[in-house]
Amino acid sequence: MTQLYLSRLPCDDQCALRCKPRLWGQPFRESTVLLNVVASSRMKFKLVSDITLIIATSLVCLQGKIYLIRNQHGGREKEIGFENDHGQNISPKMALLNVFLGLFLLALTNIPGNVVCQNSVTDLVTPEFFDGIKNQAPATCEGKGFYTRDAFITALNSYPEFGRTDTKREVAAFFAHVTHETTGQFSFSLSFDSWYLSIISSDFCYIEEKNKADPHCTSPQYPCANGKFYYGRGPIQLTGNGNYIEAGRAIGFDGLNSPETVARDRVISFKTALWFWMTYVHSVLNQGFGETIRKINGPAECGGRNRDQVLDRVRRYTDYCKRFGVDPGPRLEC
């Protein structure tokens, strides 16, 4: 079934609508429409109704960037026309043909009637957001030069279902966990003016687990290679021979014989985090943040164990939710 998703950014003078059609389960094309909502002396961009939104979006999928334009000249409005992504005007007849073609394809491909509007992951994980996290870490943190937004976005392309629904909470939950898992040194500063002790964590600091003595050959149904260690690596700190082997099969690297790839290839590193997330965590998001903790580190942290770790994850999650302007929801602890 074809599905059409629109992503709308909070905006003052511009809004971005991103079309993400999927034909027969495969991504077909992604395009963006920019709507200038500020009237100028010559023109303003305007979507006049929901049906126009659907029509215009179908044209986006067909032709790249399409703008619905209402021209104004001398106080008199001219007819509505279309402009393609090369800045060329489309004749009214061609525009009408495109409208009918768009509607025909909408019916042919069985696009749901309700177009879903949501923030896309890339709209939330901006360069400022990502770099703001890792720039807190000192230069001695190996992860500071390893984890990059570009690597995350590249890895994200392999997991289109991530953040598709309840986007803000899922992004907040994911980054709450990966920053907790990779946090390193702590810097303490005492403010005599405010009488408080501030603790600043160095997130995205670690690539590999600090304790490298344990090989973590913990799944007897999977083999372990001689001399190889399956301790935590990457943003989610992928751990255990079974996880490495399954992640390798899904992503395309030798998790059995080359687990160190997760600490050397930054894109694969983020892919392992997203693979683990989509395999074990994504499905429980609607049960509250506490269930995501249970899926990631339940035996060590849930049921009253290591509550300080749980509270740290919750603090991060609620902070990100506040930043994104979304309520964190119920059942925050496990």
TrEMBL record:
Catalytic activity annotation: Random endo-hydrolysis of N-acetyl-beta-D-glucosaminide (1->4)-beta-linkages in chitin and chitodextrins
Q: Name one Pfam family in it.
A: Glyco_hydro_19
Q: Which SUPFAM superfamilies match?
A: Lysozyme-like
Q: What class of enzyme is it?
A: hydrolase
Xref: PROSITE patterns = CHITINASE_19_1, CHITINASE_19_2
For molecular function, the Gene Ontology terms on record are: chitin binding; endochitinase activity
Q: Where is the Glycoside hydrolase family 19 catalytic domain?
A: 141-163, 268-278
Example GO BP? chitin catabolic process
**E.C. number, please?**
3.2.1.14
Q: Keywords assigned by UniProt?
A: Carbohydrate metabolism, Chitin degradation, Chitin-binding, Glycosidase, Hydrolase, Polysaccharide degradation
Hydrolase among keywords = yes
InterPro entries registered for this protein in UniProt: Glyco_hydro_19_cat, Lysozyme-like_dom_sf
Keyword flag Hydrolase:
yes
Name the UniProt record assigns to this protein? chitinase
Native species: Citrus unshiu
